[in-house]
Hints:
This protein is an all-alpha fold. The chain is built from seven helices and no strands.
Amino acid sequence: MKKFLLTVLTLVFAMSLYSFVAAEKKAWDVPAKYKAMKIQKKGDAESIKLGKTLYTKYCKSCHGVGKGDGPKAASMTVKMMDQTTAEFKALPDGSKYYMSFVGRDEMPNFEKKVVDEEERWAIINYMNSL
Length: 130
Ligand code: HEC
């Protein structure tokens, strides 16, 4: 009986520790060289249109229309940000570039899939327009 109780207690402790760690979303460590990057064609309608096409093709399956609720979102262990919020918009565009194309963990690297600089900035322009 004592052993059983000890096992239960250990399990409860481990589970609460896990949920605490999982809830603590770690901040992105964006290198200065990326942070300083400046957006091309800010708010340009044509760029936003191109960005929408690309985002729909590569990003929507996880990110939805920016809200982080695409069909694959449920299978991710890390929650995505809501990209339609002021909190996301306030991030430096260079940081968004790093997060979008270099990525980390469950956020895939897109450097080989979206090679063109104009296309990359089009995606950022689109996210900023959401
Ligand atoms: C396989 C699912 C998946 C795909 C596809 C995907 N992402 Fe993500 N993305 C994630 C996850 C999960 C995170 C949160 C990762 C973290 O915080 O460690 C994330 C984070 C981000 C972030 C940081 C802010 C946020 O929303 O949390 C940006 C910006 C981003 N993704 C942009 C993109 C862009 C642009 C594309 C398409 C070119 C894309 N993602 C495609 C899963 C995906």
